[in-house]
Design a protein that fits this description.
Order of helices and strands: HEEEHE
Structural class: mainly beta
Shape: globular
Strand content: 5-15%
Helix content: under 10%
Oligomer: single chain
Length: 81
């Protein structure tokens, strides 16, 4: 886990072997280690998924966030604020 202070808005993971990956990120504003939600389970903190997949009554399915890493590409994830 990385803190927002450590990320400074962007981070890079290097030397991952080629393969299939999926990423989910959240900005834990309260520092409680959880993605806080309101009374209807909608997240109250920023979150995002690889492929900028959109949740639909829960997190996106694995196929929606899955991407292939071949050493020459990168994945950019936008946080939903």
């Amino acid at each position: 886990m990385l803190t927002a202070e450590a990320l400074k808005g962007r981070f890079t993971i290097v030397d991952l072997p080629a393969g299939f990956y999926g990423v989910r990120v959240m900005h834990d504003l309260t520092g409680n280690g959880e993605l806080d939600a309101n009374f209807v389970s909608m997240p109250k903190e920023p979150y995002g998924f690889s492929n900028n997949a959109t949740p639909n009554f829960g997190p996106p399915k694995c196929d929606a966030i899955r991407f292939q890493l071949d050493g020459n590409n990168q994945q950019v994830i936008d946080l939903n604020l």
